[in-house]
Design a protein that fits this description.
The protein has about 140 residues and is an all-alpha fold. Helices cover about 85% and strands about 0% of the residues. It has helices at about 1-20, 30-60, 60-70, 75-105, 110-140. The protein starts with a helix and ends with a helix.
């Protein structure tokens, strides 16, 4: 029994040094795409939840509903709208990529090029939208 305990005591130290190198996952762009897909999905869900709640206010108290809608008209809310647009666009494009990887026989082979396509499409649509929305916010804040 002592020999078993002694060998067991030595084993974790060796296994610990072997595993120490692989503890931190240093993934590539695919891992960050996975993380961003989850985050944008949760953010979109919370937006929809808040949207349902504020729309339901019209039945409970029309005055409270009007107050909430006035809050949404503030120029700072344009930044939140821009964030929502960014999250929904990325989530939608990446969701199409995920479906292609899952259901297309060549999907795994073309996973990285499809991810770069998603990022380029996202940028192509986000840059003009951001310019337009931020111009509107600046105009409303500082007058135009």
């Amino acid at each position: 029994m002592a020999s078993t305990t002694a060998s067991a005591a030595n084993a974790p130290a060796h296994a610990e040094t072997v595993r120490a190198k692989g503890r931190l996952y240093r993934g590539d762009l695919g891992m960050w795409s996975w993380v961003a897909h989850r985050i944008t999905g949760v953010l979109t869900f919370f937006f929809l939840f808040v949207h349902v709640l504020d729309t339901a206010l019209v039945r409970v108290s029309p005055n409270a509903y009007d107050t909430v809608i006035e809050t949404y008209k503030h120029p700072v809310m344009i930044l939140f709208e821009l964030g929502l647009l960014a999250a929904v666009l990325f989530h939608a494009f990446n969701g199409i990529r995920v479906m292609l990887v899952d259901f297309w026989s060549q999907g795994t082979k073309y996973q990285k090029p499809m991810l770069w396509t998603v990022l380029v499409l996202w940028l192509v649509l986000m840059v003009p939208a951001a310019i337009s929305m931020l111009t509107r916010a600046v105009t409303e804040i500082f007058g135009g």
